[in-house]
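Hey there, shall we discuss this one?
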Amino acid sequence: MKLPEFGDRPDALLELLERKATLWRGRVLMPASDLALEVVSRDRDRLASRYRLAVPPWEVTRILLEKNRLRKAAEEAGLDLPRCHGPISEADVRPPAVRFPVVLKPADSKRFERRAGRRLLVARNDEELAQGAAVFRRLGFDGEIVELIPGPDPFFYNYSVYMDAGGEPVGGLAMHKLRKSPPFYGVCRVAETDVDPAVAARLREPTVALLRRIGWRGMANAEYKWDARDGSYRFMEVNGRCFMMQGVAMAAGVNYALLAWEDATFDKVSAAAAPVWKGSWIHLHADLLHALLRRRAEGLRFRDYLAPYRGPKRYAVWSLTDPKPFLVEWARTLRQAAAWAARRNRRSPLLDEIQPMPAKIHDHF
């Protein structure tokens, strides 16, 4: 069911759920976006009498969604983090020891992306930092000035796990990101599950420690970036909802959606088998699109692009037996490209001046 106004008016989801409460009574609500997670968690008490909810209470959920609370919890849990140089609102009084480049990271990245057309800004000098802070002020957002951890897309890793009611981890899967869309600062478009067990253990321990500290119950997917300067894995963020790489987790033997359904329905979860499948997860539409548009910036060879397709793989959307969702993705991309071209002359010069990353990241790190 389409809900086109949801992005601009989140309460539209709550209104829909209330209208359909009689028809959908007893169904499990399992958010697949941060905004849906926020709406369902905020109104958990209001919805709980008619639905089964696969979300924690708001006082827990908000820690994952609000960057300042998440950073504080991660620090208390002992995770390695990128250095924070303070709030963007205080960019003009930043400490003199800031080492560029830095990330201007919004407290609410999803809403910021809808307004600014990108998830974050990167500043490479004092002038760009001032310009970026001006963008945040004009759009009415705040956030943090954070150290940029150097290195390309393959330095990113994820660890997903399900936490039961007793704070015990169920299942667990480490994933190595190979390519992101857009490159460097976007979401995953190609990943592999063939991760060194020692690396997987280093990702699992801090993920579980953080989730236990905040009292999280449910699925979670934490992102880390390997820091070549000291060999640490720097914590980036954690998503507490259905994530796009569910297909590869299922292939590996961890069905997070099923665990969430069991938990919401029976108040318990089954044991999950240890992951055994080794292969790649590919968002084909995104990989083709960015290979065409950003091949020079990524600096990859043709065989690098081809490598994940040669072994066992799962596609995020593409299916030969049901190609319509894949075609819908391309149709949406063409509409967005046309809308972007129409808006370009009306964009703020500041947003055009502050680029997400230098053109060739490999030349800088």
